[in-house]
Design goal:
One of its GO terms (molecular function) is aminopeptidase activity. InterPro entries: AB_hydrolase_1 (IPR000073), AB_hydrolase_fold (IPR029058), Peptidase_S33 (IPR002410), Pro_iminopeptidase (IPR005944). It is found in: Cytoplasm. Its EC number is 3.4.11.5. The protein is built from 9 helices and 8 strands. It is α/β, with parallel strands linked by helices. It folds into 2 domains: 206 residues, 3-Layer(aba) Sandwich (Rossmann fold); 95 residues, no CATH class. Helix 2 links the parallel strand 5 and strand 6. Helix 1 crosses helix 2, helix 4 runs antiparallel to helix 6 and helix 5 crosses helix 7.
Length: 318
Amino acid sequence: MVLKEFYPPIDPYDSGLLEVGDGNRIHWEVCGNPAGKPAVFLHGGPGGGLLPGFRRFFDPAAYRIVLFDQRNCGASRPNAGDPRVSLEHNTTPHLISDMERLREHLSIDRWLVFGGSWGSTLALAYAQAHPDRVTELVLRGIYLVRPSDHAWAFTPTGAAKLFPAEWQAFRDAIPTAERDDLVAAYGRRIGDPDPAVHLPAARAWMAWEFSANTLLPAEPPALDDDAVLAAARILHHYIGNGGFLPEGGLLAGIDRIRHVPAVIVNGRYDIKTPPDQAWELHRSWPEAEFHMVEDAGHASVEPGTRHLLIDATDRFRP
């Protein structure tokens, strides 16, 4: 089998800042074919922001590709890299509302929704809230934000056993007396207004976040201080609040989207969003096409994962 490659780099033909309420403006861009099939890309994190490579999962001749920076990250304003910016109005329902405002702003009736990692969480939550606006779902690295997923990421009995050196660095950035609840201890530091306190904590938090992205070790992205603090603040905000998901979580709402054509892709050796989450989604939603990539971790750029994601968008072309 010949693995599918990314489509060539492409620039947006339109972009802007959309007022979404509460003093927030989200940055959006559109590329590809203005008359093509609408598709929206949801980035991870939360708080990860857009990268140019995200445009390349879609055939630009067939799709009208919409991308946006979620609230308070990337080029959206205000940016959480400023510790004075409140995250009070940054929740999953707010992000879902932002997507609807953007869809209406761009005069789109229905669109394909593509999301990986946290983007898969938001894609499922959006689709369950607005099933009539979704033509298809393409989901990668499923993150259900259950208590067990929290425990896997932030206690010594989970991912720490596979990344012991990285876990030690994450743990040792916190004084011994506060290590009984690392998430809370990091929250106090990341939320401190003093850069001498919040920046080291944010960098240690994000170093642990990036430690398990790929099956084989890879250099983490280089982020400036504002991007690091924004990502750490938003990620901690969502983790500390259970992803702002409805009671019962995402699996409880599958009946609302059971009719939507969907492709689920997860790496067998995904340490960040272990495949039990994708498997549980598949068990709840057997109508969705399911793929376990045997030689992949978490990242969307790993060859087998990339192939399946692009194959899905190719098959969903008009």
